[in-house]
Each structure stands twice: as C-alpha cells, then as structure tokens.
Amino acid sequence: MADARTQAAFEERHRQLKQKFAERTLNDAARLEDLLTEFTQSDSESGEEIRQIAHRIAGGAGIFGLDRLTEPSALVEDLIIDKRAAETVRTKTEALIAHMRREAETV
Amino acid sequence: MTALEFDKSQPIKRTGGPAPRSGSFRPRTVCVVDTDTGFSEMSTRLAGLGYTIIDGRNGLPDGEFWAVIISSAVDPDLELAKDCAKKHHTVLVAEEPTFELRLAAARAGVEAVIWPPIEMVELGGWLGDFHDREEPVYEILIIDDDELAGHAHALALEQAGLRAHVITDPTKAVDTLDELNPDLVLLDMHMPGVNGIEIAKIIRQEHHHLTLPILFLSSERDETRQQEARQVGGDDFISKPVDGQTLARLVKIRANRARKLKQIAERDGLTGLLDHVRFKERLNAELIRSQRSGTPLSLCLIDIDHFKRVNDTHGHQAGDRVIQTLAHSLTGALRRSDVIGRYGGEEFAVILLDTELDAAATVINRIREAFSLLDFHAGEAAFSCTMSAGIAAAHKSDTTEAIIGRADDALYAAKHQGRDRVECEEEPKRPSVLKSGTRHAS
C-alpha cells in the first residue's frame, strides 16, 4: 500500500511520537515521585492524580510498543479505584516508576 | 448501425480552477474485441453508457483499461480471454451461455458473461461494479484529549490507507464533524471534564449523525460503562491498549459496513443514485463550497421524454430499465466528483463541480445524443428514448431554490422547443446553446 518513501516517512513520524512519549513518561515518573511524598490514601487529590497518570500510561503504552508498562500501570489504577491500602498503592507505584524509567531509557 | 465516434481526443475544458475536491477525471476506456458487426453494436452501447471505446479487433493494445469486452465469436477457445483476465476486468460475450462455456469462462478467470439480447442495464451494471471495487478512502475523526495517543492512533490508521484527523478538545466535536463529514468517529472514553458517553450523546443529537459509527477506545474494565455507551448508540469498543494494525483493521471493517448501510438507506433503490432529499442537501453544501472557494458550479436537470408512453406501451419493467440505463450512462460519462441524483420518477439531477455553463452543456449534450441512439427491448418490441435537459450555472449569491428554479425553467424551455435537447438558463447577453451544439442568438 505505501511505497518505500512513504513507509520511511511513517516510520519517522512513529519514531518522533515514541520519542515524545518517552519524554513524557520520564516527566510523569518524576511527577509520580512528587505525588508519593504527599500521598496518604487512595481517596484524595494526589490519589486521583496518580490514577490519571497511570491510566494514561496504561492506555498509551500499547500503541507505542512499550507493552511492559501496561500491566504495572493498569494495576496501580485499579488499586486506587478499589481504594486499597495506601502502603500497597505506594509499593506498586514505586515499582511503576522504576518500570517507566527503564522503558523510557530504551527509546 | 454505425459506431459512434465522439471526438474524445479533445478533453472537455472545464475551468482552469483548482481540481475537484474529491475524485479525479479518468477517461473510462473499454477495449472491444469482436467481429465488425459486433464491434459496431457494442460501441454504440458503450458510448451510450459514457465509456470511451478502444478498438481491439486487431489485437489487444498495451495499457490499462477499465474493462475488456471479448466476444466468443472471435475467441472460441477463450485463449485471449484467459490471457486478458489476468490483467484486466474482462467481460465475455457469448453467443449462447452453455454450461461448457460457463465452465470454460470460470476456468479462464473471466468475471462476467453476457449474451444477446444484450441489456444495457446488465452491461452498465458490470462496468459500474468494476468501478465500485476500488477501495474507497475513509475519513476518520479521532477525539482524544491525550494528544500523543491521538496522533499515534492516527498514524496507525494512515499507514493502513485511511485518513485521520485528531482533535483534543471535545467541545469542538460537533463543528469538526460538520466540516469533515467523517465516515467514523474514534472516541476516547475518559476525558477531563466530559466523558466519551456524553460526547456520543451530543453527537447523536443531530439527526444526520444518527447513523454515524462511533467506536469507543476504552479500558476493558469499564463494563458498566460499556453497557451505558451501547445504549447511547456507541457501536463498538476497542480495548486499550491496542496495537496499530488491529485498530486499523477494526476501524476499516466498521467504516465499510457503515458506508454500505448508509448507501442503502439514503439512495434510490432502483438506480443507487442519491435520492431527492439527499441530492438537495448535497447541492446546498456544494453551492456554499463553490461560493466560498470561487469555483464555478453547474446544475443540470434531466427529464426522460414521453416516459409515460414507455410505461404504457412497454410496461413498467421496460420503463425501469430505461431509468437504470440512463443512470449508468450518467455515472459512466461524468466524473467521480460530479454528483448525480434521481430527482424524481423520470427525472435526474446532476451537479457538475468546477464546471462553467458552456462546458456543462457540451458534456450533457454528448450524453443526450448517445442516449438517443440506444436500443431498448421489451419482449419482441424495440424502442428508443430521448431526454431533455436544462442547465443553470451558480451565481454569486445563489440559493438552492434559485438555481433549481433556473435549471427547471431551462428544462421547460427544452421541452417546449421540441424535446431531445439541452437548454441553458437565460442570460441577458448569452445566446442559448441549441441541440447541435452550435450557437445561435436567441
């Protein structure tokens, strides 16, 4: 369907988007770290923001080919929706942050 | 009957303006391989249907054709047909459709077999079908507040041959829909301030968006949300995360189905053309567009002469065939970008985009002449038909009603002056174009 030149153009656009996603993921990781310092329970503003970030990562990871982020981020989102214990959320969010940094470095 | 020779070496000069918004002009050439008599008869039919004839009597020329028509009279073993079918859409004209011949044709890879008496409708149907099989381009609107994800999804769709447009602001959804007229909307379920279901409800508030397919991109866990969304008319869910190829495949299937359903719902059943209401809607839209861009537009109203007589003398089936044939002729002779509608029982309407009055008259006159030379059959009887046409060109501040009125007046003048002619709207300085295409002061 696409000739060699258009295919190359597509690949370039994909590379650029993936790059931006990686940058955003690193920023999100830093933000999550900040949020964790004030996080005390799921049902709170910081909890909600953590959930939103996790949701965004979970949704976007697949299309950008960073599938290893899907599960850990979906997990964090679910934990907060289900209002699970703060310690559990904290642990899993820290794990997510580590995943995010690792995956973003590979791009 | 002699074959008609239209001087198609001279392309009609439409205006020098920008190319039509969609579609391109591509002369539809059909190569005919037949005996001299057969060639002559087939040429008349094809000319009547708006196709350009290429002579294949001395061998199949190189190049691309819309279709090739081969007679078994000159190719009894179907050797040529078999060879041809590898590269072109091929129609075989058989003297008699025996089982042996049909089997041989199937083995040769020939798609279509027709036999005398050859119905224009059938021939037109086959040739039209070949046209429809080209893949249409679908336009997709993506609404996602996550700009990166939106563009990534758009990229995946574009790689699969679709066109995608991304908006991140859901408040712009309705306006963008009206401008873009997409085939499908891809909607993210979760957006700050307003969720996907609410956007879907808002989209569905407009009557002409009731059948627009809406696909939700949502996380699998939202099962109750999914139920709610189906109630509001969401058509499908795609669970995030999704890979690009799967997304494109699902979107294509859904867009394709929606377009087919839309056509059935909005088009005239007999001819597949736009019905009266849709045609007028389309005329309104095209009029606005032409005024905004400054490109010319011509409207033509066509009426089959003495149609009632055809029905009364030869029956309604014969009448239907005449209508279907004229529909095929118009589709065949006009550009993909021109808009054709079945305006009434025996009335057709055409919007010729990017076309001045003179050029429109020439095109329509050609169609008129070719149509008048066609033979129709009803049982033992043979008959022919003619059409009258009136054309109006869009003026700067035209309304739909105004331009229709002037085209209608011109049509009336054509009828009044003897029928089987094309008349243009009266303009103070312009002479009107008469039947033979020569100008006379009126």
Task: Give an overview of the whole structure.
The complex is a heterodimer of chains A (107) and B (442). With 107 residues, chain A is mainly α. Chain A has one domain: Four Helix Bundle (Hemerythrin (Met), subunit A). In chain A, helix 1 runs antiparallel to helix 2 and helix 1 runs antiparallel to helix 4. Chain B folds into 3 domains: 104 residues, 3-Layer(aba) Sandwich (Rossmann fold), CATH 3.40.50; 128 residues, Response regulator (Rossmann fold, 3-Layer(aba) Sandwich), CATH 3.40.50; 149 residues, Reverse transcriptase/Diguanylate cyclase domain (Alpha-Beta Plaits, 2-Layer Sandwich), CATH 3.30.70. Helices cover 41% and strands 19% of the residues of chain B. Chain B is globular, with a radius of gyration of 25 Å. At the A-B interface, helix 1, helix 2 and helix 3 of A face helix 5 of B.
What layout of secondary structure does this protein have?
The complex is a heterodimer of chains A (107) and B (442).
Chain A: H1 4-38, H2 45-63, H3 70-81, H4 86-106
Chain B: E1 29-33, H1 36-49, E2 52-55, E3 67-71, H2 79-85, E4 90-93, H3 99-108, E5 112-114, H4 120-132, E6 139-143, H5 147-159, E7 163-167, H6 173-180, E8 184-188, H7 196-204, E9 214-219, H8 223-231, E10 236-240, H9 244-266, H10 276-293, E11 297-304, H11 307-314, H12 316-333, E12 339-342, E13 347-353, H13 357-372, E14 376-378, E15 381-383, E16 387-393, H14 400-416, E17 422-424
Helix pairs in contact in B: 1-13, 4-12, 5-9, 11-12
Notable traits:
heterodimer, A: mainly alpha, Four Helix Bundle (Hemerythrin (Met), subunit A), B: 442 residues, Rossmann fold, Alpha-Beta Plaits, five-stranded parallel beta sheet, globular
